[in-house]
């Protein structure tokens, strides 16, 4: 197994913040985003990492940014360490394959979620109310069914804990009508393009989450894109509507934590080697399928 990178320490480079998975630095007029091998479950970062996870997330994001760049500009400047500013080059060993030098955009206070299938919290919502995030849906849908049209269900970004689903009208109040409409259109266009590409490779994108920001006056795509951490990927050949589907993500980790009856409060328990290995293989597999 390759080395696990749980956190980075780039001396002499201005450290900005540590997210659940990413370490973010500032250098010159850019940001450096480093995807570590940290894994979180139920909004708690676990003490055990998943080897290679940060590289998989970075490479999948780069693949998708390239596939949709004609729809919307993105924040990537370079993912090649040899093109990074001089002070970063000595950290090539850590940064190679898991880092992106990006434009310093001002993130919007809204996350853009597109759902093509009814699953997860959307399915629970529908069972109770016949709606998903306040949007009325046809009666008689079954779990994991494809929706008639992709649904745009934005949420607010929470620094800690769960994001909160909001209506489109609320995004208009937060962002103004023009920006709210634009990110909705872009999110659905990106989802449709990605779904077509993935389906040709035998993968369903059930739902995904993306983020936008302003770089000067330009609205651009930022953060990660269509990774197993931000999306639900299902195998077309194993897809059977009417029940939960097996996802290419950290579900193995969640299932293990549920099985040991962890109370979902920090500190989180260590993961056994077998769970780590299976999860790493799952990330690796979806990377190979999508980018081959």
Automatic annotation (TrEMBL):
Catalytic reaction annotation: 5-amino-1-(5-phospho-D-ribosyl)imidazole-4-carboxylate + L-aspartate + ATP = (2S)-2-[5-amino-1-(5-phospho-beta-D-ribosyl)imidazole-4-carboxamido]succinate + ADP + phosphate + 2 H(+)
BP GO annotations: 'de novo' IMP biosynthetic process
Annotated GO CC locations: cytoplasm
InterPro entries noted in UniProt: SAICAR_synt/ADE2_N, SAICAR_synth
A Pfam family this chain is assigned to: SAICAR_synt
Transmembrane segments: none
GO MF term set: ATP binding; phosphoribosylaminoimidazolesuccinocarboxamide synthase activity
Pathway linked to the protein: Purine metabolism; IMP biosynthesis via de novo pathway; 5-amino-1-(5-phospho-D-ribosyl)imidazole-4-carboxamide from 5-amino-1-(5-phospho-D-ribosyl)imidazole-4-carboxylate: step 1/2
Keyword tags: ATP-binding, Ligase, Nucleotide-binding, Purine biosynthesis
Residue span(s) of domain SAICAR synthetase/ADE2 N-terminal: 16-266
KW tRNA processing (keyword) present: no
EC number(s) per entry: 6.3.2.6
Family indicated by similarity: Belongs to the SAICAR synthetase family.
PANTHER family: PHOSPHORIBOSYLAMINOIMIDAZOLE-SUCCINOCARBOXAMIDE SYNTHASE
Name by which UniProt lists this protein: Phosphoribosylaminoimidazole-succinocarboxamide synthase
Organism listed in the record: Thermodesulfovibrio autotrophicus
Organism ancestry: Bacteria, Pseudomonadati, Nitrospirota, Thermodesulfovibrionia, Thermodesulfovibrionales
């Amino acid at each position: 197994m390759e080395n696990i990178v749980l956190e980075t320490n780039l001396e002499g480079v201005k450290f900005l913040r540590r997210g659940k998975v990413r370490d973010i630095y500032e250098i010159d007029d850019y940001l450096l985003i480093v995807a570590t091998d940290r894994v979180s479950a139920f909004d708690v970062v676990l003490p055990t990492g998943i080897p290679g996870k940060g590289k998989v997330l970075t490479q999948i994001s780069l693949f998708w940014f390239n596939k949709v760049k004609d729809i919307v500009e993105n924040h990537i400047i370079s993912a090649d360490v040899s093109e990074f500013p001089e002070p970063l080059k000595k950290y090539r060993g850590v940064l190679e394959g898991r880092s992106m030098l990006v434009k310093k955009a001002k993130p919007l206070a809204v996350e853009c979620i597109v759902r093509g299938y009814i699953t997860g919290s959307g399915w629970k919502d529908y069972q109770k109310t016949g709606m998903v995030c306040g949007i009325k849906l046809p009666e008689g849908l079954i779990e994991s069914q494809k929706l008639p049209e992709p649904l745009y269900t934005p949420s607010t970004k929470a620094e800690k804990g769960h994001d909160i689903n909001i209506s489109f009208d609320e995004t208009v109040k937060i962002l103004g009508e023009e920006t709210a409409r634009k990110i909705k259109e872009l999110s659905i266009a990106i989802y449709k393009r990605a779904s077509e590409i993935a389906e040709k490779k035998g993968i369903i994108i059930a739902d995904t989450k993306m983020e936008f920001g302003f770089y000067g006056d330009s609205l651009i795509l930022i953060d990660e894109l269509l990774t197993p951490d931000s999306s639900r990927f299902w195998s077309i050949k194993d897809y059977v509507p009417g029940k939960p589907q097996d996802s290419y993500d950290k579900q193995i980790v969640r299932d293990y934590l549920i099985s040991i009856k962890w109370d979902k409060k920090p500190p989180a328990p260590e993961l056994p080697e077998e769970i780590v290995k299976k999860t790493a293989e799952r990330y690796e597999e979806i990377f190979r399928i999508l980018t081959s």
